[in-house]
Design goal:
The chain is of the alpha/beta class. It has two domains: about 180 residues, Alpha-Beta Complex (Aspartate Aminotransferase, domain 1), CATH 3.90.1150; about 250 residues, Type I PLP-dependent aspartate aminotransferase-like (Major domain) (Aspartate Aminotransferase, domain 2), CATH 3.40.640. The protein is built from 16 helices and 16 strands. The strands form six sheets. Strands 2-8-7-6-5 form a five-stranded mixed β-sheet, sandwiched between helices. It has a three-stranded antiparallel β-sheet with strand order 9-14-11. The longest helix has 20 residues. The protein is globular and about 60 Å long. It starts with about 20 loop residues before the first helix and ends with a strand.
Amino acid sequence: MPKTIIEPFKIKVIEPIRMTNRQEREAHLEEAGNNLFALHSADVLIDLLTDSGTSAMSAAQWAGLTDGDESYAGSRSFYRFENAVRDLTALKHIIPTHQGRAAEKILFSIVGGKGRVIPNNTHFDTTRANIEFSGAEAIDLPCKEGDDLVSDYPFKGNMDVDALRQTLERYGRERVPLVMMTVTNNSHGGQAVSLANMRAVRELCDEFRVPLFIDACRFAENSYLVKLREPGQRERPVIDIARDFFRLANGCTFSAKKDAFANIGGFIAVDDDELAQQARNLLILTEGFPTYGGLAGRDLEAIAIGLEEILHEDYLAYRIRTIEYLAERLIAAEVPLLRPHGGHAVYLDARRFLPHIPAEQLPGQALACELYLEAGIRSCEIGTVMFGHTDPETGREVLSKMDLVRLAFPRRVYTQSHSDYVLEAIVDVYRRRDAVRGFRFSYQAPMLRHFTARFERL
Ligand code: F0G
């Protein structure tokens, strides 16, 4: 049998891409203030801004939409959704929300608040924002191996267990209402978390009697990376690995826009009866009745079906291979990137890609803009624009630890020739990198500035 890992699906419905030329793209980027978030998607050729809510649904999911039960209370679709989530997580209370951050908002409105501290391997920006909005403090405790961008250490997404012990010793269970584990670790390069690390964190949580929650957005991709990379896991069905992760947790938040192939949706799942009761009360206030939680019945159907499809081994083998395929070829062309590859994206290392642009001049932004101009590819700066800030006293940029450019692949949307096109574009830009110039902010909002900022080329 041939060895090529193929897309394990056929294409039934297509969405045309409008081709553009460089001159048109220059005008679009200018109008967008050099911010890729401000582009019209119709002016983008290959959209790798995010893998969230952008995946292609299957024929079964589209059929599920027709089958959705839109009853206000007790919808059949809710019970199907609840069964799918419970089968996977074994958690007692399953509470739908309209997306991941809605689950976070509810959870941290209850357990957050002034004086509280929430450790995580690395908080995603909405998780951090919801924790901070409640008055609590969000702390990132990524493992030290993650600081080295070029090593092939397989689990750079892990939590630093010693640092977690120190945090728990310092604040105790009075101030730490829960520990969180983000799988895969999106803000830290989409890196995988090992089962061994999850178990070590669980043991610490038991010792200090603190609950452990998972931010489970990309649980299936993480489980498959564990299967490929963790000793003793290779022969196990990926669903068993996924279940092992959830069995180690007391609850989770989830965005169904990632590893459930849905365009919208999420949930919060917990064992604790009291916490569930409080969450449902808040849910009714902002999301809706507990059997739909801000979603249509048809969305609940699509999520239930997606949660089953995402764990197909053929799909996951293809999915992880698509990321590896691009990463492998970029490494062969000596393009600087974060290694090893994660599950949903390739992260270019903009500081090494554009060494002549000082970090204050936003090399990640420069690279992301250049890829758009070169080939109509939309990526996402994950660096100083997103996580840094301008010092109000000196007017200087306070830098983030790394300047990465994320190329996040929507699930089941692009084919191998799209990847080859992206590869060629990156390599071409790399060859003439010396001509790329930096940027400075011409406008920025006080919070989450990356979404609405405008930039001037230097
Ligand atoms: N947690 C993680 C790890 C995420 O990556 C995201 C979203 C969320 C929570 C929030 O979920 O968008 O449904 O409210 N990540 C997207 C991204 C936006 O592009 O990485 P949401």
